[in-house]
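Incident log, structure service

09:12 report received: a user says their structure output differs between two submissions of the same chain.
09:20 pulled the input from the user's history:
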Amino acid sequence: MAAANAAAYEPDLAMSLNNLSIRLAEAGRREEGLGASEEAVAVRRRLASANAAAYEPDLARSLNNLSIGLAEAGRRNEAERARSGAVEVEESVNRRRDGTSAYAEADPTSASTNVGGTGLQPGGCGSTNKETPLTCVTGRCGTTKRHVKTAY
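09:34 re-ran on a clean worker, output below:
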């Protein structure tokens, strides 16, 4: 169906591929999940190229999800590229929306400020070791103390 009428079905196809990638990874089928995630990114890139305002937010989320899967698979360089792509897309969305940078808003759901879907934001504790300092921005931990998560 998606091939017959791409405009009507590709958004749902991309969402289904993204969900499939998550479920496959949860089932221990990480490589298959990464394939589905990469396909979701490809579909969302195609959609965003035709209508950036409508589809770039979903593209940023898919790139962020891909970066998480790649990091969990130990593919750190690829994960960093996907995360950087998510940041670039998110910043494009924010510039178009109101002329600000994604970092200026510190939106905890933003791909550019939400490290690996954890609700943690880059910055904060000044650690100089091999860990990336992170600050909780969601309040889920019930405290205002800073967190440190090992960088991938």
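09:41 both user submissions now match this output. Likely a transient worker issue. Closing.
09:42 reviewer note: The first strand starts at residue 120 and ends at 122. The chain has two domains: 6-104, 118-152.
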